[in-house]
Amino acid sequence: VNGGDWQTSPVFDGLTAGTSYSFTARLKETATLAASPVSEPLVVSTDKSAQAAPTLTLASKNDNSITLAEISGAEYRVDGGDWQNTPVFNGLTANTQYSFTARLKETETLAASPVSVPLVVSTDKSAQAAPAAPALASKNDNSITLMEIVGAEYSVDGGDWQTSPEFGGLTAGTSYSFTARLKETATLAASPVSVPLVVSTDKSAQAAPTLTLASKTDKIITLTPISGAEYRVNGGDWQTSPVFNGLTANTQYSFTARLKETETLAASPVSEPLVVSTDESENPVPVFAGTNTIGNVQVIRNGVQVQSANNGTLVSVFDINGKSVMATQTLSAGNYSVLLDKLPQGLYLVRVRNGSQMQTVSVTVR
Question: Which one of 102, 223, 302, 306 has the fewest beta carbons within 10 angstroms of its own beta carbon?
Answer without folding.
Answer: 302
